[in-house]
């Protein structure tokens, strides 16, 4: 099969598109023919060398994987040839106390797809049945590649960790990016009033067309907390969703009202951030780190995408061969939502 291997990480990462053996099916697993793989900022951080710990040599990147079942193990149940499915973001044993408690994405034996083990930038991938979520037949596989990440990841962050409820105010930074554009939709689906910020003027109209709330351009010199307090009758936000990290950390903290929570899901620039402790203390505020998604988050995301509550946002579809172009586009910050790679570059 054809597979895309990261040969050297750095500012100008080097890749090889190679032919390797097709994967074999496990006793309790399946082989997926990969139809679409989203390119996450995690992939970019591995490509540019920011993230190196635990990354296997000559790794096949890609953890946002959607495809069609082409082989089924003899003990595999609940899925058949021809079914559409998405993978989880990590492997898990399915048997330990952590897995049985619904936290399989924190399994002590877990390996991250496209990180500790090979991922989806290949024509086929072999996974165990417990690391797979079946899709409805009508679902588009390009959009479905975003179900586990970023959509399932935002479901976990907003539903489980932030406990967003009807009538709360949620500020979303980086709302034109892969995490932000889906977080805004998830927050809206939970009944929250969404206030979204983006640094890209060309994304404003497209964000408004999604209909999840108010959208503002985060311009130089603008303190977003001024807008947030004005729009919340001086109460401040209940939740600040921060997929960007240090670049908006202090601004996001100032947006919080009493008892507010900031959830942080990424660090785009690789910088440190200073914290005004008084800002946190006198708000009775919380800062929460979040990563990953479990089966139940992915299943919830599947249901919401299937029913049209959430729309996967894919701006560009490219073949594996154009991975460097995908890398440059994402680095530019101009991509709306996600870039998706396919073996052929054509919608499936």
How does this model look, in words?
By secondary structure, the protein is of the alpha/beta class. The chain folds into 2 domains: 2-146 and 312-342, Alpha-Beta Complex (Quinone Oxidoreductase, Chain A, domain 1); 152-289, Quinone Oxidoreductase, Chain A, domain 1 (Alpha-Beta Complex). It has 11 helices and 15 strands. The protein has helices spanning 41-47, 97-100, 141-144, 147-161, 178-189, 204-209, 224-231, 246-255, 277-281, 295-306, 323-332; strands spanning 2-8, 14-19, 29-38, 64-72, 84-87, 124-128, 132-134, 169-172, 193-198, 213-217, 237-242, 256-264, 286-289, 314-319, 338-342. Strands 3, 4, 5, 6, 7, 14 and 15 form a 7-stranded mixed β-sheet that branches. The protein starts with a strand and ends in a 6-residue tail after the last strand. The model has no long low-confidence stretch (mean pLDDT 95).
Short description:
The protein has eleven helices and 15 strands. It has 348 residues and is an alpha/beta fold. Strands 3, 4, 5, 6, 7, 14 and 15 form a seven-stranded mixed beta sheet that branches.
Calculate the mean pLDDT score and round it. 95
**Class of secondary structure makeup:** alpha/beta
Examine the secondary-structure arrangement and name the CATH architecture of the largest domain: Alpha-Beta Complex
Helix content: 25-40%
Main β sheet profile: 7 strands, mixed
Q: What name is given to the CATH topology of the largest domain?
A: Quinone Oxidoreductase, Chain A, domain 1
Number of discrete domains: 2
CATH classification, class level of the largest domain: Alpha Beta
Uncertain ranges: none
Order of helices and strands: EEEHEEHEEHHEHEHEHEHEHEHEHE
């Amino acid at each position: 099969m054809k597979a895309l291997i990261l040969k050297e990480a750095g500012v100008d990462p080097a890749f090889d598109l190679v032919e390797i053996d097709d994967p074999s099916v496990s006793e309790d697993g399946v082989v997926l023919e990969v139809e679409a793989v989203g390119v996450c900022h995690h992939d970019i951080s591995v490509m540019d060398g920011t993230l190196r710990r635990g990354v296997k040599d000559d790794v096949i990147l890609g953890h946002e994987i959607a495809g069609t079942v082409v082989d089924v193990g003899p003990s595999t149940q609940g899925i058949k040839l021809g079914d559409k499915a998405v993978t989880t973001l990590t492997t898990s044993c399915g048997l330990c106390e952590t897995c049985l408690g619904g936290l399989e994405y924190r399994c002590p034996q877990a390996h991250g797809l496209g990180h500790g083990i090979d991922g989806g930038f290949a024509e086929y991938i072999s996974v165990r049945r417990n690391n797979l979520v079946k899709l409805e037949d009508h679902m588009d596989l390009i959009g479905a590649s975003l179900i586990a990440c970023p959509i399932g990841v935002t479901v976990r962050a907003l539903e489980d960790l932030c406990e967003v409820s009807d009538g709360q105010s949620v500020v979303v930074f980086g709302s034109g990016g892969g995490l932000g554009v889906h977080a805004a939709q998830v927050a809206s689906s939970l009944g929250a009033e969404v206030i979204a910020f983006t640094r890209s003027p060309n994304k404003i109209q497209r964000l408004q067309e999604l209909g999840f709330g108010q959208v503002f351009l985060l311009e130089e010199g603008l303190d977003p907390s001024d807008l947030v307090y004005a729009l919340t009758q001086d109460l401040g936000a209940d939740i600040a969703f921060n997929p960007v990290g240090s670049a908006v950390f202090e601004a996001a903290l100032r947006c919080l009202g009493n008892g507010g929570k900031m959830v942080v899901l990424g660090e785009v620039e690789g910088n440190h951030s200073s914290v005004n402790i008084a800002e946190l203390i006198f708000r009775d505020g919380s800062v929460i780190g979040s990563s990953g998604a479990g089966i139940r988050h992915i299943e919830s995301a599947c249901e919401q995408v299937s029913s049209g509550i959430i729309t996967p946002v894919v701006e560009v579809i490219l073949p594996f061969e154009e991975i460097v172009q995908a890398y440059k586009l994402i680095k530019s910050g101009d991509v709306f939502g996600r870039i998706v790679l396919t073996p052929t570059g054509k919608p499936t």
